[in-house]
Specification:
The protein is α+β, with helices and mostly antiparallel strands. It is built from 9 helices and 8 strands.
Amino acid sequence: MKNIILTTFLIFAITVKSQEAQKSYNFSLEQAISHALTNNYSAINANRDIEASKAKKWETTAAGLPQINASVDYSNNFVLQKSLIPAEFFGGTKGEFAEVAFGTKHNMNARATLSQLIFDGSYIVALQASKTYLKYYQNAKQKSDVEIKETVINSYGNVLLAEESIAILEKNKKTLEKTLADTKETFKNGLIEEENVEQLQITLTSINSTLNYNKRLVEVAYKMLKITLGININDDLKLTDKLDNLTVSNLDLAFSQNEFVVTDNVNYQMASNFEEQRQLEYKLQKAKALPSLSANVNFGYNAFGNKFEFFTNNQHWLNYSNLGMSLNVPIFSSLARSSRIQQAKIAVEQAKTQLTETEQKLKLQYANTKSEYEFSIEEYATAKTNLNLAERIEKKQQLKFTEGLSSSFDFSEAQKQLYSAQQNYLQSMVNIINKKAALEKVINK
């Protein structure tokens, strides 16, 4: 009995803990985008890249600011180096040499150095480059946000498409099951042929298969959306927007008539940033031909002794200090420096060409996405009209079939036409949402 109670308690505790760990979310499309821009994994790392680039910028700035370093050197001369001096200095025979050891067994040197860069053309260029470096990652973050927004919109639309497909398929299944039941009764009474029943059974089987596929598809679509949002795939997520409402809100032909400003596009900005980097590399190679000047001040103490007494009051320390200047003047490099400058200049011209190419490609991309968006609106209107016609045709064929005025084949074809029109209509709504997202991505809205 105790084991049963303990087991029940453990199961209850695990269940409660699991429920506490699982979170629930209710998102409209705008809320989903806002959440993803903060919690998407790529967005998180893009923010970290910006923080790292800020730290890198300060690292570059600090290289030209005062630097203080301290060091302590200790040596134990357990065998002193010996030198030879004329023996006659000590009263020995002229022409002979005596071995003499100079120094003490223990030596210690403690010093501090203050250094300061006074002028270096490379440092000035490096400061400019650090700003460009930071701007690059800020542009990369902006590009990441634009791509995340588009991905969220597409994933959100895919979930709604799958859910709407399931709803329509279940409705079609229910209607078809009733028709099949009525047809079976008619067949039992000998008023129609068995082929009519079999044809409806084939259609019902096809609907069940498609329905099961969409149920599996909606699970995958939800998981993909959760990953994009940056939440656990086991968390509960409900979408509050409806497909038809989103479609209506994205129907805006006037939007596609806005003038395209290519400089607003983040890809153009990144290409421009790349050109700026190449310009700075060119300036850097030229700056390396300039002299550089630096200064340093040293303060230190030396101590010597045959016994290790450096940390006692008996030890005598000898202080020293000096001021130094260092001037480096590049004179001749066998044209290696000139070669590097020429390479950097060519890289600048290549970057300018790439920027022009990017501009032209973006204009083409804008024209293409604009055309696709406008076509999606036209396609939606056509799909809506076709759906209404397909519904009317299917109802007429169903009535004729029920009254024995139409064959099961004609009724089946009308059903297939209706089911296809339904899917085309749903897809046309998703296309409007996705194509507008693609257009917004290009114009960086």
